[in-house]
Amino acid sequence: MLVLTRKKGERVMIGDDIVITVIDVRGDGVRIGFDAPRGVSIQRAEVVAAVEEANAGAAASAAKGPDLLLGLLTKARRQDAPAASEEATAPVREADAAPAAPRAARATLPAGLPKPTPPKPRA
Question: Is the pTM of this model over 0.85?
Fold first, then answer.
């Protein structure tokens, strides 16, 4: 690591196209300015560390996502299904005696989701 002492207004060159300028010195803080090409990323180290930590946390929770979704769907289906005792005591109507539709046709969407629209036929 190169350590330099600079005064207000003095500059440091990195390569041919990066210039660091001391803008102001206030107490225990120094304001510096960076002049670099657009392709050079300039980030504060603590911000980069925070972003990496947030990304790691998001990746960990994303791995749990499918299991959480499956659990929510199972819970929603249990709440929508009638209790076994209700089915046993309910009177049988003619419409109830009809054969059951195939499982795919009986599937329902969770509340709040829009109903899918069929694809338009090609001309």
Answer: no
Give the 3-state secondary structure of residue 23. Answer: strand
pLDDT tens digits along 13-45: 999 999 999 999 999 999 999 999 999 999 999
Query: What's the order of all strands across the beta sheet hosting 11-14?
Result: 11-14, 18-26, 29-35
